[in-house]
TrEMBL record:
Protein's gene: trpF
Any one GO molecular function term: phosphoribosylanthranilate isomerase activity
Protein name: N-(5'-phosphoribosyl)anthranilate isomerase
Key words, A-Z: Amino-acid biosynthesis, Aromatic amino acid biosynthesis, Isomerase, Tryptophan biosynthesis
Highest taxon of source: Bacteria
InterPro entries xref list: Aldolase_TIM (IPR013785), PRAI_dom (IPR001240), RibuloseP-bd_barrel (IPR011060), TrpF_fam (IPR044643)
Record organism: Leeuwenhoekiella nanhaiensis
Pfam families with a match to the protein in the record: PRAI
Catalytic activity line of the entry: N-(5-phospho-beta-D-ribosyl)anthranilate = 1-(2-carboxyphenylamino)-1-deoxy-D-ribulose 5-phosphate
Keyword Endoplasmic reticulum: no
Length: 235
């Protein structure tokens, strides 16, 4: 068995992620996602994918959130939000989605307003030991959250942490997710991060909770969820 989605979902996490990146050992290549308990949001993870590809997966799997893990531009994020909003209203009005043709990413005009979309966009930035936060400004109107991961050899899933001290200079009020190599050994540091004033709203875990790529260790995940539900309890 490559994935144990249903067993992980039974633990009732807030989010469950599915990676669509052929070079990843976790690439999700099944035609369906098992039906999930209410309250779990589905996250589609993409790396420099075409807009057509992302929208096709949104239609197929009904993602709540799109996590963009590549070098996607602010224009790409803006267009993705717009196209998602169009898909949502088209399927609401016609009960069917429009055909997807070749989609180009136009340049943003300075007066253009962000379009609300029911599918959230999280833009990922990878950090080693320094980060130029000024790059975030151009994305702010078009994304719902940032996600900070560790810069490594792979696009994601590198399995080690970055220097979280860097985030002390986070200049924005936009909520962010902390990611990159988080395992049970990092929970004390996570606890300290949660005590800061930073708008950290979720912790993203991946390879440190696996027995093999894609196959999560549910007993370790239970310990993690127990920690978040009662941070003062022992690990
Ligand atoms: O896990 C992958 O293989 C992967 C490939 C391409 C993009 C993202 C990927 N995973 C994401 O990477 C982070 C951190 O993972 P880890 O804890 O360091 O293993 C997480 O957001 C995963 O969804």
């Amino acid at each position: 068995m490559k994935y144990n989605t249903a067993a992980v979902a039974a633990l009732q996490p807030d989010y469950l992620g599915f990676i669509f990146y052929e070079k990843s050992p976790r690439n999700y290549d099944l035609e369906e996602i098992p039906s999930l308990p209410l309250g779990i949001k589905k996250v589609g993870v993409f790396v420099n994918a075409s807009l057509d590809f992302v929208l096709e997966k949104v239609q197929q799997f009904g993602f709540d959130i799109l996590q963009l893990h590549g070098n996607e531009s602010p224009e790409y994020c803006s267009e993705l939000r717009k196209l998602n909003a169009e898909l949502v209203s088209a399927s609401y009005l016609d009960n069917e989605a429009p055909a997807l043709s070749e989609i180009e990413v136009p340049a943003l005009s300075p007066v253009e307003q962000p379009v609300p979309s029911s599918v959230e966009v999280w833009k990922v930035f990878s950090i080693k030991d320094a980060f130029d936060f000024s790059v975030l400004g151009a994305y702010e109107p078009y994304v719902d959250a940032f996600l900070f991961d560790t810069k490594g050899k792979e696009k994601g899933g590198n399995g080690y942490t970055f220097d979280w001290e860097v985030l002390k200079d986070y200049p924005s009020k936009k909520p962010f997710v902390l990611s990159g190599g988080i395992g049970l050994d990092e929970l004390d540091s996570v606890k300290n991060m949660l005590k800061t004033d930073l708008p950290l709203f979720a912790i993203d875990v991946n390879s440190k909770f696996e027995d093999q790529p894609g196959l999560k260790n549910t007993s370790d995940l239970e310990k993690l969820l127990c920690f978040f539900r009662n941070p003062d309890s022992a690990k």
